[in-house]
Amino acid sequence: MAIEDDVLVVGGGLAGTTAALAAAERDVQVRLVSYRQSTLRNASGLIDILGYTPAGDGPLVDPFEALDDLPAGHPYERVGSEAVREALAFFDGIVGDAYAGAHTDANALVPTHGGTVKPTARYPTSTAAGLASDDRDALLVGFETLPDFEAPLAASHLEAAGAPFTARGVTVRFPGIGRDDAKVTRYAHLLDHDEPVETPAGETTAREALAETVRTHLEGESRVGFPAVLGDDRADAVRADLGDRLGVDVFEVPMGPPSLPGIRLEDLLYEALEAAGVRVTTGVPVVDYETDGEGADATDPERIDRVVVDRNGAEVPHRATQYVLATGGLVGKGVQSERDGVFEPLFDCHVPQPADRYDWFVDDVFGDQPYARFGLPVDRDLRPLDAADDPEFSNLRAAGAVLGGYDFAAEKSGSGVSLATGYVAGRRAAEGCR
Amino acid sequence: MPRDTGVLVLGGGSTGCGIARDLAMRGLEVTLVERGNLTDGTTGRMHGLLHSGGRYAVSDQASATECIEENEILREIAGHCVEETGGLFVQRPEDSDEYFQEKLEGCRECGIPARVLSGTEAREVEPYLAEDVARAIEVPDGAVDPFRLCVANAIDAENHGARVETHAEVVDLLRDGDDIYGVEVRHESGPGKRTHAAPGTTEEITADYVVNATGAWAGQIGAMADLEIEVRPSKGVMTIMNVRQVDTVINRCRPKGDADIIVPHETTAILGTTDEEVPDPDDYPEEQWEVDQMIDTLSELVPILEEARTIRSFWGVRPLYEPPGTGTQDPTDITRDFFLLDHADRDGVAGMSSIVGGKFTTYRAMAEEIADHVCDKLGVTASCSTADEPLPGSENIETLEAGMDDFGLRSPVARRSMQRLGSRASEVLETDEPNPVICQCEGVTRAEIRDAISQSGSDLNAVRIRTRASMGNCQGGFCCQNMANELHPTYDEETVREALDELFQERWKGERHALWGEQLSQAMLNYALHATTMNRDRDPASATGDVDFAAFDGGRAASDRVDGTRGAD
User: Fold this and answer.
1) Per-residue exposure over A189-215, b if at least 16 CB sit within 10 Å of its own CB, e if not
2) CATH class held by domain A113-253
3) What are B145-166's pLDDT values in tens digits?
4) Which of A196, A322, B335, B351 is most buried, judging by how many CB atoms fall within 10 Å of its CB?
5) Where is the FAD dependent oxidoreductase domain (chain B) (predicted)?
6) Predicted local confidence at residue B246, as pLDDT
């Protein structure tokens, strides 16, 4: 017996969860299946819409102004700028107070752990007091055992970037961390649970000990930034507690993988899926699909009848009216490659590419990289197109990094494209069930 | 006329560093200049094979004999640079029985321990060998870390009073009539470079004698004094796999050919190679077919290579030489022997000899012969001790291994640190400071990175070759930034930023030749981490033009801030 739903979303990252939530709002039965751990856990948790134009102009103060000038085939051009705004409003509704930035169209500039600044439209509340576009002086605090963030260097880097305030950095020992290779989740857990820790002054709690350690370094700054390890489940309480003890605003600087802000966002989205009644199955790959033959006439695209999901070795058919492909790009493995070509592994959708793999890259590592644009071309309904520009299937839409024609890393548009195309794909899929 | 130094050695590869060590140990005053980093030329671009001599046992028995002698010496004096993997010469059904027999006899004639294994026995040693491998000859090939070995020679030269100057390019030979008496170097500028002298300046270094040990670049040096040195640079590709598919050196047992060797090296396996003459050792095409040939041909020996993940490819240029008039067409036929060209005898120009040709495995013996020659020229009587004195890091290896301490590190990290550092391990790793792992792929800790920085300055590629940091699967995507962080505060922010850019770009250079499958996904992840998460591609600190910070979202209203009305409540 096949498992039956109205909409089946394949992929559990930002695009897939957004698509599932957008579809579920339209009173259809939605299922989300995902295989690999989501790349959200590697991401900074910042929601960027557009930081730079494809030509490299920027940082853009207003990302929305630039949307209408994007080239044909760019995912934003496909869905239109109104849909981007709607999708962002939809996201704001889901995450509520956990994110900030909705009060303005302007991008914020958020300090990164490399010390540079990044334009972004929404940012976790935990980073809000740290904006580089805020002119208050800041103290950055790094930890001896966390080599990813060298606070004094980051402070000098902010100065070199022209930030309108004085930043200082200090490196301290994190009280209660005994191992040099402790995971970031260990730091977060210590603070979440305010565990007892030993200090030279006797036993105290993790938050108090950290505040005491930092207090002696304050020189009148009204905000203090830490690498993003300030709690997981109780991050707001940890930040508020540290802020009260120090009499400052406390913020986090987003870090590389594994990223607590990314993990927190993933948790929020999966809670929302549960609340919306979306059926979620994780850890299961889609291994095959079947169509129900030709469309109404020979020129119509085929319809996907079912996909086959591998559940611990058992092949279980999943049937839906509409399907959304949100399996990610090269990083998420929704787009894969071999020596002689790039392909989309589930439905074998067309991926435009230079025939010679030595044309997949350019020599400057940060140059205009063709491989960064690999992905599926789609019509304005987000249906993947074949080499003749006809839809591959009538009831398949694609969203997020599996799409081609844009370089999310250079543009700083990854989250925004996932939100906008996920939102549109989910809505259209639901409409297609009627 | 007083000279700045006794002997001036040009070239910081294995030969140059070996000569510098040898002469310095004999008590001579030595200066070595290198245009880039140590190992930047051919030494850092080889497959890491420590020859048993088996490879030359049929075609060139003199070289084969010398290889096995030096192989045994290096195991003694450079234990921390050598892995005694053993090697196999593997015969496929289509490979000649007659040649197999010649190889076996040749090994025995040259004193190379050799034993025949059946196909089944060979697969017991190396389970991934192809099912149809007929038989194999086992020889004492090994793997050697050319970076560590070369650097150890340079350090020991310095310990014996030598001056070693990197990023100092020879721009002219100083010639007075028929006498060469030194060189002019330009000290390279740039924040990623370590200079003893002010960057961008030139310096004349005079010497009693000059040794041109620049290998494939020897012709260019010679031309500065109108000397013709007929080097025949020949390129070869090496492709690096993500894991060690084999733990033994695997050679194809046939007369000659491209793509016939796999060398296990640290966490990786290196496939090699090709042999094609190039006109310019600094500018030659790096081609797709060469990489494809490595994988396709060597898959005949080890079939899983076909589907395995390659992490990068690189090319090296052999410093081949043959005397004028030999006229060999095929570079694979040019001898691997080395030549000492005394320009006084050859060209009537005194004060300089050039050393060309040769092999990495026999670098020490070459250095000894040249040092003898130089001593002869200078009337010095001092004998060579490089075969007996261990290199820094290799003293007391057995005692060290017996009393191995894990320095508070996880055991795989400790074990690998020990293998790299040898007897210097406790000096480097014993610290009261926290010592987190900086490079996860290779297990390199902060203390080891800082030790390398203290040797080589802000050049992160020099740190890389000393430690292997950024040389694993992620090719630096996760650790380049953290390596750069360790430069601060010794070096300022701008220097750190540019050193990071330089390392990241260098890592990308080799990755380009492995851009498919897992490694293309890795490249996209690295790009995303550096461009998306850190915005390093459009860093305002490096861009021209200022950012109007005030135009951007400044965050919450002032009333929410601790120093706004909330704080005043």
Assistant:
1) bbbbebeebebeeeebbbbbbbbebbe
2) alpha beta
3) 999 999 999 999 999 999 999 9
4) A322
5) 7-361
6) 96
